[in-house]
């Protein structure tokens, strides 16, 4: 007879309103579907983490977000296998003791963002962080990484924490952010500790007429699709290795349920890469009229704006603006508007459920036929052919082996697990 795997009752203590936690949960799910592990998962129906009574949890194991001090405290007396997930620390003494810990590598996250801004030709740098608090320890670690990189390279970096997000303080927070950005040397590259923080600063820059990325090149951390949707200028972001963290944490707990012990094991998972979009694509612009025009085009190209509207915004004649564009960019204002519309359409066509007619409207093309003609002229293919080509070129889903993923296996081997 085929032996039925033992079913283990596992609690996942995460807050699903955060992209970091959602991706960890996704990684755990990927591990379960690729192995013979049989887990009955406890999660709140709204994917929130509620700790009341967790010490009486009658299960077999727990995977939890230890970035929250309340979680650390609640699980201190639990006599079950626990795997902690969170951010890395510069000081080894800050890690939880006697418990395996899977961490995102905060230093490498910031370094990847910093290297990207350097490659864009920037020489001034700043960090937009969060107010100091126990629940924001990971943000302070990213500040430390930023400071270490600035010190290493002999650069005067600028750190700003601002205030926390709340309805009463929102207007004041935006005013303070604008004042801070205006006080910085330009052009400047700013690393925000999260995409949510980056979105706030990007919105403040747009409200104040500060050109992004000509004057401020901005990059966040998380690759949160919601943050991208809520900004007129597409937001660049460092992609954390959170799915791999989830797979690794699940593998550790699976082994612990069968007798393995990994006390004080610490596994740092590096970032998966960068999603480079318009907010950090800094190119030096010498003439202020071109910078102003680009700022306007970047926000409103997909709303069907014309060259005359751009010239009105800048406050000069159409012929003068065309002359500046030809001299500095080698193309017309119309060509630049069209380039942004085309880029937006290409991004949307990469989504599996995208509709060509809807995309034409949302990107400001006057008709599907016109978008079709632009694609044929600029890319040599129709929008549908482009979509099919992108789908064919996409990497296939990773087929994970029964026991552990290749990446998890490599990470675990490095730590003798």
From TrEMBL:
Q: Which GO terms describe its molecular function?
A: DNA binding
Supply the name of the protein: DNA-binding transcriptional regulator
PANTHER family, per this entry?
Answer: LACI-RELATED TRANSCRIPTIONAL REPRESSOR, XYLOSE OPERON REGULATORY PROTEIN
The record's section on CDD domains has: PBP1_XylR
Tell me the superkingdom of the source.
Answer: Bacteria
For the HTH araC/xylS-type domain, which residue ranges apply?
291-389
**Annotated SMART domains:** HTH_ARAC
Q: Which Pfam families is this protein grouped with?
A: HTH_18, PBP1_XylR, Peripla_BP_3
Please spell out the taxonomic lineage of the organism that makes this protein: Bacteria, Pseudomonadati, Pseudomonadota, Betaproteobacteria, Burkholderiales
By its UniProt entry, which InterPro entries does this protein fall under? Homeodomain-like_sf, HTH_AraC, LacI/GalR-like_sensor, Peripla_BP_I, XylR_PBP1
Q: Which UniProt keywords apply?
A: DNA-binding, Transcription, Transcription regulation
């Amino acid at each position: 007879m085929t032996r039925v795997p033992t079913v283990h009752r596992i609690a996942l203590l995460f807050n699903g309103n955060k992209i970091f936690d959602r991706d960890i949960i996704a990684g755990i799910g990927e591990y379960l579907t690729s192995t013979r592990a049989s887990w009955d998962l406890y999660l709140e129906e709204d994917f929130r983490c509620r700790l009341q009574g967790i010490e009486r949890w009658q299960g077999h194991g727990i995977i939890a977000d230890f970035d929250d001090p309340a979680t650390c405290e609640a699980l201190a007396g639990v006599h079950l296998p626990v795997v902690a997930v969170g951010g890395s620390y510069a000081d080894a003494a800050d890690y939880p003791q006697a418990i395996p810990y899977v961490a995102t590598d905060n230093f490498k996250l910031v370094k990847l963002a910093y290297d990207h801004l350097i490659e864009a030709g920037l020489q001034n740098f700043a960090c937009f962080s969060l107010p100091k608090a126990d629940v924001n320890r990971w943000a302070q670690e990213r500040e430390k990484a930023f400071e270490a990189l600035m010190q290493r390279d002999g650069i005067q970096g600028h750190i700003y924490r601002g205030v926390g997000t709340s309805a009463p303080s929102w207007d004041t927070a935006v005013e303070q952010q604008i004042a801070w950005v205006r006080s910085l040397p330009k052009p400047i590259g700013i690393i925000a500790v999260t995409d949510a923080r980056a979105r706030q600063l990007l919105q403040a820059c747009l409200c104040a007429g500060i050109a992004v990325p000509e004057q401020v090149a901005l990059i966040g951390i998380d690759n949160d699709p919601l943050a991208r949707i809520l900004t007129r200028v597409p937001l660049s972001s460092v992609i954390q290795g959170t799915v791999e963290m989830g797979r690794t944490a699940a593998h550790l707990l699976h082994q612990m349920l069968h007798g393995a012990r990994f006390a004080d094991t610490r596994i740092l998972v590096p970032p998966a890469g960068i999603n480079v979009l318009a907010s950090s694509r800094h190119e030096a612009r010498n003439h202020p009229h071109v910078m102003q025009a680009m700022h306007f085009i970047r926000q409103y190209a997909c709303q069907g704006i014309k060259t005359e509207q751009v010239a009105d915004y800048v406050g000069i004649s159409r012929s003068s603006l065309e002359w500046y564009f030809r001299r500095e960019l080698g193309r017309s204002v119309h060509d630049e508007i069209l380039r942004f519309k085309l880029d937006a359409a290409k991004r949307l066509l990469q989504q599996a459920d995208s509709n060509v007619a809807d995309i034409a409207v949302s990107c400001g093309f006057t008709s599907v036929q016109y978008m079709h003609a632009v694609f044929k002229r600029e890319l040599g293919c129709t929008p549908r052919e482009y979509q099919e080509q992108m789908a064919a070129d996409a990497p296939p889903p990773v087929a994970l082996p029964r026991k552990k993923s290749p990446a998890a296996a490599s990470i675990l081997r490095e730590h003798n697990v």
